[in-house]
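Dissemination and training. As part of the outreach component of the grant, students in the summer workshop were shown how a complex can be specified as a set of sequence lines and then modelled as a single object. The example used during the hands-on session is reproduced here so that future cohorts can follow it. Participants entered these lines:
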Amino acid sequence: MGYAGHVGRLLEEADAAVGDEVEVTRRGRTHRGILMPHHDFSDDAIVTVKLSSGYNVGLCLEGESKVRVVSKKLTKDPIRRSLPTDESKKDVAFIGTGGTIASYVDYRTGAVHPAKSAEELAFSVPELMDVCNVRARVLYSIYSENMEVNHWQELARAAASELNSGASGAVVPHGTDTMGFTSAALSFMLGRLSGPVVCVGSQRSSDRPSSDATMNLLAATRLCVSSDIGEVVVVMHGDISDTYCVAHRGVKVRKMHSSRRDAFRSVDIDPVARVEGSEISLLSGYSKRAAGPVEVRDKMSERVSMLYFYPGFEPEHFEMISGNVEGLIIAGTGLGHVSEKLVKPISKAVKNGVFVGVTTQCLYGAVNLNVYSTGRDMISAGAVPLGNMLPETAYVKLMWVLGQTKDPSEVAAMMVKDLAGETTSRRSV
Amino acid sequence: MGYAGHVGRLLEEADAAVGDEVEVTRRGRTHRGILMPHHDFSDDAIVTVKLSSGYNVGLCLEGESKVRVVSKKLTKDPIRRSLPTDESKKDVAFIGTGGTIASYVDYRTGAVHPAKSAEELAFSVPELMDVCNVRARVLYSIYSENMEVNHWQELARAAASELNSGASGAVVPHGTDTMGFTSAALSFMLGRLSGPVVCVGSQRSSDRPSSDATMNLLAATRLCVSSDIGEVVVVMHGDISDTYCVAHRGVKVRKMHSSRRDAFRSVDIDPVARVEGSEISLLSGYSKRAAGPVEVRDKMSERVSMLYFYPGFEPEHFEMISGNVEGLIIAGTGLGHVSEKLVKPISKAVKNGVFVGVTTQCLYGAVNLNVYSTGRDMISAGAVPLGNMLPETAYVKLMWVLGQTKDPSEVAAMMVKDLAGETTSRRSV
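and obtained this result:
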């Protein structure tokens, strides 16, 4: 179970194994909970215990300390329990996809593995059952950096099917790495929603004392039960302490920090909502629940690339890539610029039927290709400025648009039209 | 001069031309200054006048208003004046490169063109001469999106030569689009500095009422005259009003908004200094002026690319690009990840002698390839994690490192070593 040194000996003497219910006494205080595995990032002196609240605490066993087994774990297999149903509560669907939030979820045994069954997913945070009737299913379990179009499509269909069979909302536990891409894909694929589709992740896995998994999942669930939101949103911590969560519009959100719990930020727009405990505050305009049924339009082209421009960007690389795709999103500098050496290759690509859309690598603010001659040359070459659409959202949108039509003028018209709140008027950061 | 409608008629009646000194009276107040050309973005009712302070004001001429010519402009040619010299003042070098800050600079005539001579550059903001003896030269005048390695090299040599001939600092007016790339290049090319090298830009050209050019140039100049900083920094507005400027370390700064005046942000680090009027507050650790002379090591490889990863990133595109370069910087998701489909292409590239460095597209926070199996696979394939180095800084650094050595283990050692403050311990955003 990974514990070494003094802590390892203490546990051995107590005959305590991961998954046992234990009492740990140190500094005059006793904590009772399930013994969790040692985490690589924890100090050797720390033992991790999952309390009955669902939270993990890290207890430092330096000095006088005692461990006692209250009850041995019942079985090595994942526990099978039937999910409770309460007619006074609404149904919420949980659609597992993998990622940190779905890792180390076996609540009772402490086993470290991704959720493989609906029960494991549901019982990873038993508090969910106080808020709703849990409908859980594990669609797949992958690291989000391996997500591809077929995963987005399967997920869109699953979310629609849950909403259309009466779920008050769908919660999608998801790896954080590409969660913003997935939320954008769902936003375009799913028509007018009868309830929220909430992508939710965690930056610390649930075997770690500082995990944000439980709070994020609870906030996501509350949005499904108690809000009238009919949008795809991303729910994560709003600050680095456990004060509140924030719901970001699926097409305007980006992971802006590699490790902080409040890594996700709404870009160029206010978040949709703030969730503090059971309190939901709506912060900006949003689409309300529609009557349904939810339609799925999940066709996508995979022949799209995204290029962040840099000084010295090689025209021959641009030509190689643009010769191999149906559409291209450029993240230009400032107002959307590229070097003059790329203007001819852009023109050539457009003449060959490739859609070339322009966003800004600044991320915040809109493109404007009318201010400088570089931009005007890009427009003459056929590049299409995309307002303040995030490069990543523009990439996903272009895949989706090219799944709906191949007609160049229709593609351009759909790309500049606001379909899911992806282009907005500017706001101060 | 571009003025139409009511304003056009008023100016015509007054026989006022761009460059004339005029008095404009409206709402009971009179403003005196040089008549500037109409700006495309201004309302038709607005006339722009450059006050003697150097600031432009936009005056709305709706309702009762009067224009009177005080004196006609002297000549249509750029005015030639000799630069004053005051032995009690320090010398500061101004090295013009182009960009918005150097546009529309003819102070007296109001002519709209980039600074073509040292005098034009100097007299674009005459207040500079109150602070220092101005040594001005125009190195070139290009949009910064067209900057290439040879421009960085020429600039590094010019800055070193000015410092080595007694300048207290070098101010580099620069287009904002790629200013962060240039400041990074100068940081690596220039050895221990005897004074600051200050890249400075503006987000609003100086013919616009809201221009930030004057204030940014003055703040940059004050850093050269009154600070002991021996680093390459970027100076821009610190907020959206004209309250203060901020000096960012050249290797930790990124343009994070396409249009705001405070678009530049220090990423994962505090700014070096805050400049409010003539007050300089030092905010974080920095390198102090060295004894000199400043050495230039300006060799760079242009065979380097940068790739922002996205779901569905095409392995064949990776192979095409990595087959054509000496080094590659990946901006991965989250802690630095790419999809498992790219692990083999990475391994192949490394085996072929291509350096593959890993940064995060989150921009804030560090990479860590030891947490998840994807990252560990990337390390096994030979990818090198680069801490919290910005992708753009890592790209420039790799060009520079490959200009110093082609030995793979030396390249890797130099890339992970902190050379100019580009990798720092994490701070909260």
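Chain A touches chain B through 65 residues (CB under 8 Å). Students were then asked to discuss how this feature might be tested experimentally.
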